[in-house]
Amino acid sequence: MNRPNIWAEGQEIIFEDNHLLVINKPAGLLVQGDATGDEPLSKKAAEYLKFKYKKPGEAFVGVCHRIDRPVSGIVVLAKTSKALSRLNEMFRDSLMTKTYWALTGKPPVPESGTLVHWLVKDTIRNVTKAYPEKHTQGLRSELHYELLGPAANRFLLKINPVTGRPHQIRTQLATGLGTPILGDVKYGYIAPLPDVSIALHARQLQLQHPVTKEAMTFVAPLPDAPHWDPARELFC
């Protein structure tokens, strides 16, 4: 049986133990299956575990959170039902620190701050609208941002979302700061990137291990894509 061409340990696989599988997801890959029928990360993970451990049946893979298809970076998968249950609680209650990096076409003004909006998801069009005031159908959404500096003719921002709403970072940067993310034409950027990704990367995740209770920090290397090269050279 040949090894599936899925991931290489130390590259896409950031961490693995008996309970967790932490992946540096490439842009363009779904985390969980949808109506497109495209093979998602969860299925690739199950194939990887089945091969690695020579499992006769299906491997257990639990999805406790997602990042958007065009976004790259850290995704934590559960290998046991115990880990999945506890991770679901942690993500629901925001009991971890998430850090994203984003490239924009212009710097934010001010260079650091907090954004609060009420987000309303249009499930038909798959877009989210941000309202600056309380909205009866909206979910309160908060993030902190900071300009790390220029990266060639782009600007690198660090974002720490307090809440985890669909398209939250994308719509809050575009609406609250007028700085849509590089390549994100859905939220106002002028043109797509050649690989149809957007320059948003789930860079770091800090959490308590759901079983051992150990404090853990995961860091995902930036994608091997030309638009990330200046940020990689200056900030990594």
From TrEMBL:
CDD domains for this protein: PseudoU_synth_RluA_like
Cross-referenced SUPFAM superfamilies: Pseudouridine synthase
Signal peptide span: none
This protein's UniProt keywords: Isomerase
Biological process, per Gene Ontology: pseudouridine synthesis; RNA processing
Domain of life: Bacteria
Keyword Hydrolase: no
GO molecular function per UniProt: catalytic activity, acting on RNA; pseudouridine synthase activity; RNA binding
Pseudouridine synthase RsuA/RluA-like domain residues: 19-174
InterPro entries listed in its UniProt record: PsdUridine_synth_cat_dom_sf, PsdUridine_synth_RluA-like_CS, PsdUridine_synth_RsuA/RluA, RluA_PseudoU_synthase
Family to which this protein belongs: Belongs to the pseudouridine synthase RluA family.
Name of protein: RNA pseudouridine synthase
Organism: Hymenobacter coccineus
